[in-house]
Amino acid sequence: MTDPVRIAITGAAGQICYSMLFRIASGGMFGPNQPVALQLLEIPQAMKVLEAVKMELDDCAFPLLAETICTDDPKTAFTNIDAALFVGAKPRGPGMERSDLLKDNGKIFSSLGKILNDVANPDVKVCVVGNPANTNAYILKANAPKLNPRNITALTRLDHNRAISQLAAKVGCGVPDIKKMVIWGNHSTTQVPDISYCQVAGKDASGLVDEAWAREEFIPTVAKRGGAVIAARGSSSAASAGNAVVDHMATWAMGTSDGDWTSMSVPSDGSYGIKEGLIYSFPVTCKGGGEWEIVQGLEVSDFIAGKMKESEAELLEEADAVKEMV
Ligand code: NAD
Ligand code: LMR
Predict the structure, then answer these.
(1) 13 CB under 6 A from ligand 1?
(2) Which stretches of the chain drop beneath a pLDDT of 50?
(3) Which CATH number describes the domain made up of 157-321?
(4) CATH number of 5-153
């Protein structure tokens, strides 16, 4: 039997994980022929709920689920893993910005980053979900210097999926018709959803929608969608976030399709003038096996370039606010 892919998941008794774990265990992340082992981490106060989650995972009798470990010890959770999903962190409530969470959540990522550095395989693939995701990933990267920094990513696939869904609804096409969506920047309201390169069933999206819609409706709707869900639901997005983590890891492991790319927050190498080392969302192609490349050579309009700089400035401010943690 194929060895399972071992996945550490923090915050495993929380809302996002309650939908995501069952998708992973049924093969949604690494495919229908790949067994998985889940190494679930929680804080001591949440262990009872986590045991209930394990009971439900057991009760599904998933053929691909080789093992489920529940622990409140990060060393146990991070030993022998191939991938780590950092979900555990406080969510924001109504009226808050994600960066308001930095002081509390940043500490989680400095302490868990150090432990990951000590016990994990240096090639482990990391996706940070807990907000503010980009700066938490930046903190984790600084505290885990033995890890390959290219493997430290943050989630902007939810924004990418939201953007595709909004454009599909506007032009009246199916989701699979849309290729080459881009989310630039931070997973925050300064993010830059960009349809400049989008193809809709082979046609340029820019010829199908007017620029005023793209600037005044599309960008703010996507950028503020997390807040709209909180206002409607009373708590932050969970199922769509879990779905986006599944998509992020599946695309990273299995590759982007021909003629398309995805959006991932990755360490900047200076592409498009973004400061090296910041965890910034770019259009990225994945070849499978964990390789990714930032798409190069896109012509960026002055309007989009200005917004990309605003999002970079916000990330620089966040980096400055956590300088004692990195
Ligand atoms: P939740 O409160 O339901 O669950 C969080 C869980 O994390 C809790 O069970 C808590 O006990 C646990 N936890 C806290 N500190 C921990 C630690 N040090 N180690 C292990 N576990 C720990 O929250 P949720 O709805 O699952 O959201 C989790 C995070 O994801 C929040 O920060 C939220 O803002 C963020 N989020 C990000 C995106 C994105 O697109 N990047 C989307 C949605 C939510
Ligand atoms: C989202 O985008 O839905 C999440 O980041 C949760 C939030 O705080 O908006």
Answers:
(1) yes
(2) none
(3) 3.90.110.10
(4) 3.40.50.720
